[in-house]
Amino acid sequence: MLAMKKFFFKYSPLVWVMIVIIAALFAASTAINVYDAIRFFGANTAKTIIAAIVATISFLAFLSAVAAATYGRYVVKDGYLYCRFGFFYTKTKITDIFQLTEFTTLNKLVMYYTDEKYSVAVISEKYYREFYEALKAVNPDIIYTIQSAEEK
Description:
Elements: E1 5-8, H1 13-40, H2 45-70, E2 72-77, E3 80-85, E4 88-93, E5 97-103, E6 108-113, E7 118-121, H3 128-138, E8 143-147
Parallel strand pairs: 5-8
Antiparallel strand pairs: 1-2, 2-3, 3-4, 5-6, 6-7
Helix pairs in contact: 1-2
């Protein structure tokens, strides 16, 4: 049995800004709605309930944003590639991946699947080879190609 391998997401600065803004907005929404629920408690039941519901939803969205910021990774485990984004994940059979292509001019690593779909691996360039080797240990048929600007 192969050991589990983890590859952490490398978010761009724009994604970090967006995650922080989203987390801040939902934190503020949570605080405002908790304040409103306390303020309306006993005076207006409907407003209290609505504020409590919105505060709960906002808090869950805040937790999701924080989880996405702190727990974004790919995990190679038991023949599958798990793409974890906070509380959410996708699971792909590694045998469904047939090629990884590194686009050097874009600093992107693209995974191609047998169902004619593809996705960009959001990891640091320094881990591309290690990522490929972890996948290849499960599926020896995966090929790795490099495309540079000169090859266009």
